[in-house]
Every structure is written in structure tokens, then in C-alpha cells.
Amino acid sequence: MPGLYLLVICVSIAGVGVGARLLLPGVVSRRLARPVLAVLAVFLAFDAVGAARGWFASSLDWVVAIVPPGIPPEEPLLLGFLALFSVVLLELLRRGRDRA
Length: 100
Hints:
The structure is a single chain. Helix 1 runs parallel beside helix 3 (74-99) and helix 2 crosses helix 3. The chain contains 3 helices and no strands. By secondary structure, it is mainly alpha-helical. The protein has one domain (4-87).
């Protein structure tokens, strides 16, 4: 089912983005791009080393393609989603604590 994993990641990014814009105004903005890109760069470097050394492997049953050194195109989207979700979750917890 190549493409399903990609679709789920894209829907998840959209869902977190829309939810954050509605519930946490000001969190999803241009300012958020720098930390997300920084996290993405660090984790992609780690993934590139791990894939090149054989530590990580992706199944062609789930990913669209595998790009040398062994990282599927879905990986940057997933890592970006995890960074976005972490920031949104942290801000949600912070605002909840401030209200209490």
C-alpha cells in the first residue's frame, strides 16, 4: 500500500495545523518554521547515517520510494510532523497550566 503512509502523515499534519490554528492562535506561524527545520535537519542527518550504516530499513510495501542512502520521502514529513506536534502539545500544556 505505497502512498497510504504518506497520506496518513499529510492528513495528520493538516489536522494538527488546523486544530492548533483554531485552539491555539499564534502558535502555528512563520516563527515556528525555524525550530521545526532545525529539528528536521538534525534528525535527517541521524537518519542518513543510520540508513547508510544499515541501522534503519524501510519496507517498499509502505513507502513510495527509497532515496539513497535509504531514506523514504515520507521521512522528512514524519519528522516535521513530530516536531510540529511536539510544539503544539507543549504549548497546549503550557496554556492549560497558565489557566489553572
